[in-house]
Write a structure and sequence with these properties.
about 20% helix, single chain, alpha/beta, Elongation Factor Tu (Ef-tu), domain 3, six-stranded antiparallel beta sheet, 7 helices, 2 domains, about 250 residues, Rossmann fold
């Protein structure tokens, strides 16, 4: 049964002036699966203002973490952006959601494609042993507007170092040009095969699974491009190769 639990901010990271992560402690929060989300809330005028956030932290970590941006005129995110260490907030128990590895068919390669804060559930998945055992190749495609909108680069670098022959990281920026970054939007870079060329792997229904999370426009266009490449949406009743979660 869903219920609100009390928690406290134990750490915060400001990636830039509009992108931040909050880490909080809640020993009562039950075990969750990597890739799931839950509601985060703040009490205000006797009511709980809330919205869903994916958990960035892995299921076995000590603490829970989210990544967020303060939406202009938003009812919750600007308040979250102001929270400091030691301040209270609410978390809905338990976590839920189906963007998890248990729902993804087996394959040789796993492609994790995200924009913005949509990278959160994929970082949780990458923090598990399961993903490294299940796939020969894992590709994280992470798109943002600017370089400083790419969060958790040091964490991602640890996986590149730990699994150099298995893990491929493809950061993409759309509003600035950099020598060591792909420039543009994920759907077009897929269509032109620049992402695939970057890692030396093709995307094929016989050996690829793709998980998408983030901007709905990216998801819609990327899904169409993947369908043109011969993949299909994954449903329990009709297994395919594309799993997705829209962020708004």
């Amino acid at each position: 049964m869903a219920q609100w639990l009390d928690t406290t901010v134990v750490n915060r990271t400001d990636w830039n002036d509009h992108l931040f992560s909050l880490r909080f402690s809640c020993t009562e929060f039950p075990q969750f699966k990597a890739g799931q989300f839950t509601k985060i809330g703040i009490e205000h005028d006797g009511k709980i203002i809330s919205r869903p956030y994916s958990l960035v932290s892995g299921p076995d970590e000590n603490g829970l973490e989210i990544i967020a941006v303060p939406v202009e005129d938003g009812s919750l995110s600007p308040k979250l952006h102001k929270l400091q260490i030691g301040e209270p907030l609410k978390i809905m128990s338990p976590a839920t959601g189906f963007l998890i590895l248990d729902e993804v068919p087996k394959s040789r390669d796993l492609w994790l494609m995200a924009t913005g804060t949509g990278v959160g559930p994929f970082l949780s998945i990458l923090a598990t042993e399961q993903v490294w055992h299940n796939y020969e190749n894992i590709v994280l495609v992470y798109g943002a507007r600017y370089e400083d909108d790419l969060a958790y680069k040091e964490l991602i670098a640890t996986w590149s170092k730990q699994y150099p022959d298995k893990f491929h990281f493809v950061p993409i920026v759309s509003r600035e040009s950099m020598a060591d970054r792909l420039h543009g939007r994920i759907p077009l870079l897929l269509k032109t095969s620049l992402i695939q060329q970057q890692v030396g792997l093709d995307i094929h229904a016989d050996h690829s699974q793709v998980m998408l999370c983030g901007n709905p426009a990216m998801i819609e266009e990327a899904t169409q491009t993947l369908i043109e490449l011969g993949l299909s949406k994954h449903l329990r009743r009709s297994p395919g190769q594309i799993s997705l979660e829209r962020y708004w």
